[in-house]
Amino acid sequence: MPATAPKPVLLELLRCPEPHHAPLAYDREENALTCSECAKVFRVEDGIPVMLLDGATE
Ligand SMILES: [Zn+2]
To answer: Which SUPFAM superfamilies match (predicted)?
Structure first.
């Protein structure tokens, strides 16, 4: 079963919650979003990105 990817329109709107608000890149294999600025990784659960700094891994 492939993971549910976030909708493309959602990916365009998402930005890192850190003050730099950099765009995020979706990694299909990891099913996670990676910040292009600080490289924090945010999980995606059932197509919903978990945009919590607490849940991010660096
Ligand atoms: Zn960031």
So the answer is: Trm112p-like
